[in-house]
């Protein structure tokens, strides 16, 4: 297995509220398996699945809605390594390579965390500058890169 194959293909999303662009409120969800760890929704891309197929499937599986508008896509794959404790559970992968999207919730979207396999127990919308303070340390470099890209594009 080559080093690049050790990173699990993953889709991730920065979701802004339906009040965007007047308000730039970003959706964060609290993991149900780690106390006080907040993150963007994300999930694996199944073998043979297109990235956008995975995006909409993961939205439905994680937050109970796929009623979003795709605003932008991060132009490249970005990766991070798992901390040792998580890496043990995720073998043979040592991290994830992710494709990020900026999404806007549609007005009629209803978030429901009580999905078939719940990953989150709470959610909130926060300002752009609050995201890093609430997120897991091992994801912060990726979050910072993606947020800064969308800021530079005038989107956040």
Structure description:
The chain is an alpha+beta fold and 156 residues long. It has one domain: Nucleoside Triphosphate Pyrophosphohydrolase. Helices cover 23% and strands 33% of the residues. It is built from 4 helices and 8 strands, in the order ββββαββαββαα. The strands form 2 sheets. Strands 1, 4, 5, 6 and 7 form a 5-stranded mixed sheet that branches. Strands 3-2-8 form a 3-stranded antiparallel sheet, with no helix packed on it. A hairpin with a 6-residue loop joins strand 2 (25-31) and strand 3 (38-39). The radius of gyration is 15 Å and the shape is globular.
| Tally of strands | 8
Distance between the first and last residues' Cα: 38 Å
Shape: globular
According to CATH, the homologous superfamily is Nucleoside Triphosphate Pyrophosphohydrolase
**Strand-residue fraction?**
25-35%
The CATH class turns out to be Alpha Beta
Mean pLDDT equals: 95
The SSE string, one letter per element, is: EEEEHEEHEEHH
Topology-level CATH name = Nucleoside Triphosphate Pyrophosphohydrolase
CATH architecture type: Alpha-Beta Complex
Number of helices: 4
Main sheet makeup: 5 strands, mixed
Number of structurally distinct domains: 1
The helicity comes to 10-25%
Computed over alpha carbons, the radius of gyration is 15 Å
Low-confidence segments, ≥5 residues, pLDDT <50?
none
Structural class: alpha+beta
Q: What is this structure, in a nutshell?
A:
This protein is α+β, with helices and mostly antiparallel strands and about 160 residues long. It has four helices and eight strands; from the N terminus they run ββββαββαββαα.
